[in-house]
Design a protein that fits this description.
Blueprint: E1 15-16, E2 21-26, E3 51-56, E4 62-67, E5 75-83, E6 86-93, E7 107-112, E8 117-124, E9 132-141
Parallel strand pairs: 1-3
Antiparallel strand pairs: 2-9, 3-8, 4-7, 4-9, 5-6, 5-8
Length: 168
């Protein structure tokens, strides 16, 4: 009999990841494709055997980096929020040019709000790209802007009388 698929082969059973740790996996058979109707984007499409991970922050916003540069095949990584059959794409990457060992490996960063659970799936560029991967998860604090007028929606009114608007 063939071996069973990995425990995190399905969206319903992701492996929880945390900052500062390295995770390994293999999308070769008996891994299968799960949630293939999830949204694609950022140059990646969910169409190959994939494994699932989850990340929930520590309560404070963080920039989370997922680095698959040390993987043995052409990887893709996608990050979602939501539920099975109703996923929203947050970030994705197919090829990251900063991966010096293999430019077809993936690396991305996304901002976690600190409380939402994010679902991460690792797969290959297409259905024929499978193999062993290494995912390094690192986090950094999100630095808030110095003032709240950093975009058009929160712009300060410029006074024509020369008074200070307390902006940097």
């Amino acid at each position: 009999t063939p071996p069973p698929p990995p425990s995190n082969d399905n969206f319903a059973t992701p492996i929880a990841v945390s900052c500062g740790n390295v995770y390994t996996g293999d999308t070769s058979a008996p891994a299968t494709l799960d949630e293939d109707n999830a949204p694609d984007g950022f140059g990646a499409d969910l169409d190959a055997p994939n494994l699932w991970y989850s990340f929930t922050g520590s309560g404070a916003p963080q920039t989370v980096t997922l680095d698959l540069c040390g993987s043995s095949y052409d990887t893709s990584v996608l990050v979602y929020t939501g539920t099975s059959g109703n996923l929203t794409l947050v970030a994705a990457n197919d090829d990251d040019g900063t991966c010096t060992s293999n430019a077809t490996n993936s690396k991305l960063s996304f901002n976690s709000d600190g409380v939402t659970t994010y679902y991460i799936t690792v797969e290959g560029y297409n259905v024929g790209n499978v193999g062993a991967f290494t995912m390094n998860v690192t986090c950094a604090a999100v630095k808030p802007p110095a003032v709240n007028n950093q975009d058009c929606g929160t712009a300060l009114t410029v006074n024509v009388d020369g008074t200070d608007t307390n902006s940097d």
